[in-house]
Design a protein that fits this description.
CATH class: Alpha Beta
Order of helices and strands: HHHEHEHEEHEHHEHHE
Number of domains: 1
Largest sheet: 7 strands, mixed
Shape: globular
Number of helices: 10
Distance between the termini: 34 Å
Strand order of the largest sheet: 3-2-1-4-5-7-6
Helix content: 25-40%
CATH architecture: 3-Layer(aba) Sandwich
């Protein structure tokens, strides 16, 4: 289903100033993705990261570790949100670029690693994989994380009992991402997932948290307009079926993708 990229960009521009305070899930997944990059470095004697590209860098949380922990001589970071890039502290060794990740303003085969945390589900995955493949050197590494199709299943189920409109973003399926990487030309593809569950006192807090971290339904067929008080009341009442130990859960399927460009 087509995405409205301007709506996504507007959303992240709105939340950029307080993003680091609110995007708890994104920061946790980043730490886990960086651990996976460290594993790649420790396991493979052929590992190279002198030229590293981060797609969807946000406010630059990863810069210190990527620069210092992986002998990176050239760290390039791209984001489409000018307000996000404005939050980045001064990093003289990082080249930041305001750009659409579907058309990277970079030369062919110039990157050892393409790294991306929690961005892919807001994009056309095929275009991102093709561009990543293009800019990677032979034997280069792609390492990404994103949300998967079972994310926020509680909220999806609750909405389904109210109406048939599209309220939740259509996140990609694990198997389809793996197939797409292979179709693009990548080898040594590894795709796996885990579930991270956040809990809240009430539905209003849950919805506010999603909004504050830039999350929104960006599908073209999404339900548009503000939610009425009546619908919020209905949704809150239905969501109560998921309450456990006094808290309301929100489950996120985190997909990790690892692939190599053939030599």
């Amino acid at each position: 289903m087509p995405l409205e990229y301007q709506a996504i960009k507007n959303s992240f521009n709105r939340v950029a100033k307080n993003y680091s305070e609110n995007a708890v899930l994104q920061q946790e997944v980043l730490s886990r993705l960086l651990e996976r990059l460290s594993d790649e470095k420790n396991i493979s004697a052929e590992f190279q990261s002198k030229a590293l590209l981060e797609l969807g860098c946000g406010p630059g949380w990863s810069f210190d570790e990527l620069s210092n922990g992986f002998a990176t001589e050239q760290l390039t970071a791209i984001d489409f949100s000018e307000n996000m890039l404005a939050q980045i502290p001064n990093h003289k060794h990082v080249k930041t670029i305001l750009s659409d990740v579907h058309e990277l303003p970079l030369e062919d085969e110039g990157q050892d690693v393409v790294f991306s945390n929690m961005m892919l589900h807001w994009c056309n995955e095929s275009d991102v994989f093709k561009e990543s493949f293009r800019v990677l050197k032979p034997n280069g590494l792609l390492l990404m994380s994103c949300l998967g199709e079972t994310s926020l299943f509680e909220l999806k189920q609750a909405w389904s009992e109210i109406d048939s409109e599209t309220h939740i973003h259509d996140f990609p399926a694990l198997h389809s991402l793996g197939d797409l990487l292979l179709k693009t030309g990548f080898t040594q593809v590894v795709v796996n997932a885990e579930v991270i569950t956040l809990t809240y006192d009430n539905l209003r807090s849950l919805m506010s948290d999603i909004k504050a971290s830039g999350g929104q339904n960006a599908m073209e067929n999404r339900s548009k307009g503000l939610m009425s008080k009546e619908k919020l009341y209905q949704l809150s009442k239905i969501y109560e079926q998921f309450r456990e130990d006094g808290r309301l859960p929100a489950s996120y399927e985190i997909i990790y993708l690892r692939a190599k460009k053939p030599e």
